[in-house]
Amino acid sequence: MKVSNLPLGPEEARKVAGQLNYRHNGRVTVVVQDSSTGEVLMVASANREAVEKTLTTGMMYYWSTERNRLWQKGETSGHYQFLKELYVDCDFDALLVKVRQIGGACHRGYRTCFYRKLEGATFKEEENLK
Amino acid sequence: MKVSNLPLGPEEARKVAGQLNYRHNGRVTVVVQDSSTGEVLMVASANREAVEKTLTTGMMYYWSTERNRLWQKGETSGHYQFLKELYVDCDFDALLVKVRQIGGACHRGYRTCFYRKLEGATFKEEENLK
Q1: B124: helix, strand or coil
Q2: Tens digit of pLDDT for each residue in A39-54?
Q3: Min distance B27 CA to chain A CA atoms (Å)
Q4: ipTM of this complex > 0.85?
Q5: Do A24 and A45 meet the contact criterion of CB atoms below 8 Å apart?
Q6: Chain mean position to CA B90
């Protein structure tokens, strides 16, 4: 399997970002997976600008619905994500990115945002993910 | 790691589904991962009814935005998904499910919906996923 040639130049990034379908409020869904362990770290969304910034910098950018602005993962925490591989789904409205995660992906201090597992009828925190 | 005790009874399922935050048009995002390989298969969304049906049957149900109705994965293709583990994220608005996938997850005949990988500035189909 070839390694993606990232980051891209601005023209190439515009071309790639232009192929996506931003039908969900102008955004695509982004599933983030740790490139070395395969662990799913988080899910977020990105508008076209965020996709282009990601492709031209090689670092993950998202659209923050809470703050209503472009958001670089790690910009305040230092927990940056370096893009290693990028996949698009059959509908072109979701991305799967494999990243090298600095620190924990979750702002609560966990390695992954999915740190609560359903055990019986109760969500239990998995302390070993801290 | 304990194995989740699935499926649940209707009361338990209602309780679990009631803890989720359906703030995105009444739905949660669902990331689907193969329980044995860790491969991300697809991303979809589920309303409260779909979550309850999933929990009471042990099989994956989603909300189809195209068909505007509850949808059991595999209902027409036979490519059912059996729920093995379920995680919720820090915001309670996204689920990560680990499933046993029957056949391919993608309606295009691929094992995963994420069968196109960015190589340079081009999305290339990975034929080995068929």
Answers
A1: strand
A2: 999 999 999 999 999 9
A3: 13
A4: yes
A5: yes
A6: 18
